[in-house]
Design goal:
This protein is an alpha/beta fold. It has 25 helices and 26 strands. The strands form seven sheets. It has a five-stranded mixed β-barrel with strand order 3-7-8-10-9. A five-stranded parallel beta sheet has the order 14-17-20-13-21. A three-stranded antiparallel beta sheet has the order 24-26-25. Helix 8 crosses helix 20, helix 20 crosses helix 21 and helix 23 packs across helix 25. The chain is globular. It starts with a helix and ends with a strand.
């Protein structure tokens, strides 16, 4: 009787609030067979029914589904397999806050999909045949984890009533529904205290299964259920929980999880209108670390990012800015990485030494989660989608693991072709990486690719590369030491205040000064919201003046190779694309929809700094993009070509092996420095271009 009344109230609600959606669904039924109902509408119509929906969802949703399927639609369609799904619950439950009192109630849970099984059929109505009398009857399978089998033939429906151990299951007459199991994990940006992220398994059924992939951020509304754990010794008193999914909402808009109130928006606009907003943003990056202003500026531009573009020919151009920090030990590379991740609206940190290609990109795994089947598991770059992934000690990664980064950095996807699973996951994130040189100290006369054991093809995908060298300098060392001492002093006083609760009278003024040094110009929470608001609402376009400035700069650099055919290639189109991305990010820092000539000039300085310190041939002081892209320079290539020609000439006199001294003498006569010639010969031996069977002789490898 009670259920009939609830069904009647649901009918009234559907006619009043969902009539147009019902007509639309009936026109595209059965392809579209889910009606999505907003909880707020339900609460407005009948608060008691809304409360009942939260507290007794099994009964309420069953009544609602019955009302939907029995609706008399003018189109004449009978919605026999339609589903009613509840969305936009006012309160979202955190996975770590789930308690025993929540079991059996309706809950909305937000998180990150880390694992997903393939879509498989689940029997919802099993049809059995009695082996004695041949009577055929069906048993409805509810959403539990156990398969329900009858124990006796149904006498009420015309059966013999005997108790039977095994009935025959008529698979071809059973009714099935598509199901998928996913694992939902807390978003990394919510874990500010270094806690381990918690997860919950979710069952999705019918038309909401197969709609998502690992790495997606979703909100699932469903009923929390539990099942008893079993071990090899039998049942235990402990229960596990899972969510029986009713509806699924994919978070399409960027950074929906960051709530920005009207008060926040007012503060964002106040900050935007300050003339020195850009300098303030730079000063907000790791104020406890002295100097490194050029790198901090690059990190701010990386936070805001450029605009990802979907071109008419379906080509995608990334907007994310990749930054690499290479340098000596103890120059705060790791601290900068962790600060950036903490500051980013979405950030994820991992160490290269302990990361595999599967852990960084994605993996196909076979475990009990998929009940023995293969499942897809997302890695760090997929989980950091639309955010920042920081990889420390990227040089310590194995070669085969590092190779997996090529596609993730440029195409911003991760392709999986394992165990019959062909999938492509999104990894639309910016990469902030740090590396230490192999020799311990950075050598500007040796290529970066050899010093950090990274292939040039991967290095060329970074928009900005910074070298952080620790060189003794009295003035700089004094300022750095004073800053470190003041930082530690403030930390000591803070520790005392926290534990004892007092500051000595003579320390107050000094403590206040030290705290102001460490205080960021813009507080972390406001900066995070400022970035999120910018990425959600600001999409700048280049002005004609900015276009001209970018073109003039690029052609000006390329002109180095126009007049002299022997000149090295100074820069490639990749540097121009990086420049445009940085210009878009600079405009976003001001929340401006226009890239001005001032923005262009500012980012040209940023790129110039990197070109000067990283892309310049140390021998000729000329820009040579091959110093990064090919791991050598044109000067060295020309020397190698000359040595090869000299050896070829001497082979006519000496045979396959020629004396090294003769080669060096001729090279010196041609104007090549003898030491440089020796270096080239050693390098060609390492690269397998020359061989030496005995001391003092070399030959060409053919």
């Amino acid at each position: 009787m009670m259920q009939d009344l609830v069904t009647e109230r649901w009918e009234g609600f559907l006619k009043r609030y969902c009539w147009n959606e019902l007509i639309e669904m009936s026109n595209s039924y059965p392809e579209k067979r889910s009606l999505f109902v907003k909880f707020a509408d339900m609460d407005t119509y009948d608060p008691n029914l809304a409360d009942m929906l939260l507290e007794e969802p099994d009964v309420t949703i069953a009544s609602a589904t019955q009302a939907l399927r029995e609706m008399d639609i003018p189109t004449g369609v009978t919605l026999e397999e339609a589903n009613l799904r509840i969305i936009k619950l006012p309160r979202k439950l955190k996975i770590r806050d789930i308690r025993s009192g929540d079991i059996g109630k309706l809950a909305g849970i937000e998180g990150l999909v880390t694992k997903a099984t393939e879509v498989r059929p689940r029997v919802v109505e099993a049809v059995f045949e009695c082996p004695f009398c041949g009577h055929i009857f069906s048993v409805e399978q509810t959403g539990g984890r156990q398969f329900k089998e009858p124990r006796e033939c149904e006498e009420a429906s015309g059966g013999c009533g005997r108790k039977v151990q095994h009935f025959k299951l008529l698979v071809d007459r059973c009714k099935f529904a598509n199901t998928q199991k996913i694992r939902l994990q807390e978003s990394p940006e919510e874990l500010r205290g270094g806690e381990l992220p918690q997860a919950i398994d979710v069952n999705l059924e019918d038309d909401i299964s197969g709609e998502i992939a690992p790495g997606d951020r979703i909100i699932v509304t469903g009923i929390l259920r539990s099942y008893q754990r079993t071990t090899q010794f039998g049942k235990t008193p402990f229960f596990d929980i899972y969510l029986d999914g009713n509806s699924l909402e994919v978070m399409e808009e960027a950074f929906e999880e960051i709530q920005i109130t009207e008060e926040d928006e007012r503060e964002i606009m106040e900050l935007k209108n300050q003339p020195d907003v850009y300098e303030k943003l730079i000063r907000s990056i790791a104020p406890s670390i002295y100097g490194c202003n050029e790198i901090k500026e690059a990190m701010i531009l990386q936070l805001f990012a450029g605009i990802p573009k979907e071109l008419p020919d379906e080509t995608r151009v990334r907007g994310d800015i990749h930054v690499l920090l290479v340098g000596d030990p103890g120059v705060a590379k790791s601290q900068l990485l962790t600060y950036q991740v903490k500051l980013a609206p979405r950030g994820l940190y991992t160490g290269g030494k302990s990361s595999t290609s599967a852990g960084l990109t994605a993996a196909a795994v076979r475990d009990e989660f998929g009940e023995g089947r293969w499942t897809l598991e997302a890695g760090a770059l997929v989980l950091a989608d639309k955010g920042i992934a920081a990889v420390d000690e990227i040089d310590k990664m194995k070669k085969e693991d590092r190779d997996a980064l090529h596609e993730a950095m440029e195409q911003q996807t991760v392709s999986i072709a394992k165990a019959g699973i062909m999938a492509r996951l999104n990894s639309r994130c910016a990469l902030l990486a740090a590396a230490n040189p192999i020799g311990g100290r950075f050598d500007r006369y040796e290529t970066i690719s050899k010093q950090i054991n990274m292939p040039p093809t991967l290095l060329s995908r970074f928009d900005l590369i910074y070298t952080m060298m620790d060189r003794p300098d009295e003035e700089m060392d004094t300022k750095t030491a004073e800053h470190i001492i003041e930082t530690h002093y403030a930390g000591e006083v803070l520790a005392r205040v926290k534990n004892i609760g007092k500051v000595e009278e003579g320390e107050k003024e000094h403590f206040g000064v030290a705290m102001r040094i460490m205080e960021p110009a813009v507080q972390g929470d406001l900066l995070r919201k400022y970035v999120a608001w910018s990425k959600r609402n600001v999409f700048p376009v280049m002005s004609e003046e900015a276009k001209s400035k970018f073109l003039e700069f690029y052609i000006g650099l390329r002109r180095q190779g126009y007049d002299d055919e022997e000149a090295p290639v100074p820069v490639t189109a990749r540097q121009l694309e990086a420049l445009i991305r940085l210009g878009e990010a600079k405009a976003r820092t001001r929340l401006s929809n226009k890239i001005t000539v001032e923005d262009a000039e500012c980012v040209i300085e940023v790129v110039n700094y990197c070109l000067k310190h990283v892309f310049t041939d140390p021998e000729t002081d000329k820009l040579d993009v091959d110093w990064i892209n090919a791991g050598t320079t044109k000067t060295r290539r020309d020397r190698a070509r000359s040595i090869k020609a000299i050896i070829t000439e001497l082979e006519a006199e000496h045979g396959d092996e020629v004396p090294v001294e003769d080669v060096l003498d001729i090279a010196e006569e041609e104007g090549m420095d003898r030491d440089k010639a020796e270096e080239v010969i050693e390098a060609m031996k390492r690269d397998g271009l020359l061989f030496s069977r005995g001391s003092g002789v070399i030959g060409l490898v053919r």
